[in-house]
Write a structure and sequence with these properties.
The complex is a heterodimer of chains A (114) and B (354). Chain A has 114 residues and is mostly helical. Chain A is built from seven helices and no strands. Chain B has a four-stranded parallel sheet, with helices on both faces. Chain B has a four-stranded parallel sheet with strand order 6-5-7-8, sandwiched between helices. Classes of the chains: A mainly alpha (114), B alpha/beta (354).
């Protein structure tokens, strides 16, 4: 195959017919405060782990809501559970609990990894 | 929807296209990509339709590609466009016929700017006067060349020797029509059918016997996008857009694609070769590509013009499967012959489907 110096980029479309919302639904059921997240990014701005690695709580939220559990599993390992994000959250979301719930349940819903 | 309602809605998507006496402005890139198309357009208008169309060899690029790539400032492009209008005014014409979709969008954008901000118009008049001593009038009618072919599509059908019909099966050819984004997505009222229901190419296809394919990504951009293509490392964006369209149209088994833009047929044609080289994937039957035509080439084939005289040997995706379906006689030996019939050599570049 020839190398032209560029490649065809794979589509990033989320197919909601194929969307697996089981993990999201479980997290929202166990931690209902997460429903009111407005994606302001305050959590990411204050994150201790974000100083050291490319951890982004808002991105974690997005991955969860898109059902991209493979990426979510590697992303969530970066959290140090310090809880500073909870201090700045304008909606009072228990973000640490959200992360713990994801950690607990992700293997159940991630057939690739499990 | 009731028929009366449809007629009412459709009235909002009509545009006025001048009937005769056009000042023609060519595209800078089409003369390289599809060098016979503009000549075919002029031949159709002058010989088949008996229209008056004039072009001045002193007209230049509109510099639209530079403008959309943030290289040419707005003041500069306004003055360049004003000079084209000055050539039109000096030749005694009021209707401009534009070959290029990028230029068509540029002319409309600048004329609309002058309507909204008359001070800009006065500034540009001053710039042009100081730089060249020329004066100009704003055109009364701006038509894209495809608008004009659309307007006279029934006359072309009357003069036609072929129809967009598979001569072996008698069924209409399935055609993908692709409208350049700057035709009506910038100013919907400037295009036949607006941005949502552009009918300029579909009207030609239907008038000449073909069947228009309505596929999911029909209105998606071809991926040219100026900056996406100009830097090599960005071209993945461009080819990915085209691939998305090919994937979407493939299940409908199109016989060919037709476009009214300079960039779209170029990329829809060449990217098929690139995708075949990169991934071994072709989108037509039997390992062939889907032929990509300009609307002038489509009209020329309907009128029985020689495909090699229209420059169709410049296509990277072979057009012979389409010519065979339409029952058009052609001499394969003359594909790469000059006017005197002498062979000028085959291209070294491999073609899609070969």
């Amino acid at each position: 195959m020839k190398d032209f110096g560029y490649t065809v980029i794979k589509q990033r479309t989320i197919d909601y017919d194929q969307f697996d919302g089981r993990l999201l639904n479980e997290v929202l059921q166990m931690e209902p405060s997460f429903k009111v997240c407005l994606s302001c990014g305050g959590c990411t701005a204050t994150c201790s782990a974000n100083d050291l690695v490319s951890f982004n709580v808002r991105r974690m939220n997005l991955l969860l809501r898109r059902g991209e559990t493979v990426e979510l599993e590697s992303e969530i390992k970066k959290c140090m559970l310090c809880g500073k994000c909870m201090l700045v959250c304008p909606r009072g979301i228990n973000i640490r609990n959200v992360i713990m719930l994801i950690k607990k349940s992700i293997l159940k819903y991630n057939p690739v990894k499990s | 929807m009731k028929k009366e309602g449809k007629i009412q809605v459709w009235q909002d998507y009509q545009k006025e296209i001048a009937d005769d006496h056009y000042f023609y402005v060519r595209s800078c890139i089409r003369q390289n990509f599809f060098p016979g198309s503009e000549q075919t357009f002029l031949k159709i208008l002058r010989k088949e339709l008996g229209k008056d169309i004039y072009e001045n060899p002193h007209h230049t690029s509109c510099s639209g590609i530079g403008y959309h790539s943030d290289i040419v400032p707005f003041d500069t492009i306004q003055t360049i466009v004003a000079r084209q209008f000055a050539l039109m005014t000096e030749a005694g014409y009021q209707n401009i016929a534009v070959s290029c979709i990028t230029s068509f969008g540029i002319y409309n954008e600048i004329i609309e700017t002058w309507k909204e901000y008359p001070a800009e118009l006065e500034k540009v008049r001053n710039f042009l006067k100081k730089a060249t001593g020329r004066e100009f009038e704003v055109p009364q009618n701006v038509a894209h060349a495809s608008d004009i072919v659309y307007k006279f599509r029934e006359d072309i059908a009357t003069h036609g020797k072929f129809r967009l019909i598979n001569h072996k099966t008698g069924k209409p050819l399935k055609v993908v029509e692709h409208i350049g984004c700057h035709y009506s997505k910038m100013f919907p009222c400037k295009g036949v059918g607006g941005a949502e229901f552009p009918y300029v190419l579909a009207g030609m296809i239907e008038a000449w016997g073909g069947e228009v394919i309505d596929y999911p990504e029909r209105r998606h951009c071809c991926g040219f996008g100026f900056r996406q293509y100009l830097i090599m490392s960005n071209r993945g964006y461009s080819v990915s857009n085209s691939r998305k369209k090919f994937e979407s149209m493939e299940p409908y088994k199109p016989d060919f694609i037709v476009s009214n833009c300079p960039g779209c047929p170029m990329f829809l044609d060449r990217w098929q070769y690139v995708i075949e080289e990169m991934e071994g994937k072709t989108f037509g039957p039997d390992g062939q590509g889907i032929p990509v035509l300009t609307y002038e080439e489509m009209a020329g084939l309907v009128l029985g013009y020689n495909p090699w005289d229209m420059g169709m040997q410049m296509h990277q995706t072979n057009v012979e499967p389409l010519l065979d379906k339409m029952g058009i006689q052609y001499d394969p030996e003359l594909k790469y012959a000059n006017k005197e019939g002498k062979q000028i050599g085959h291209p070294t570049m491999v073609r899609c489907g070969c």
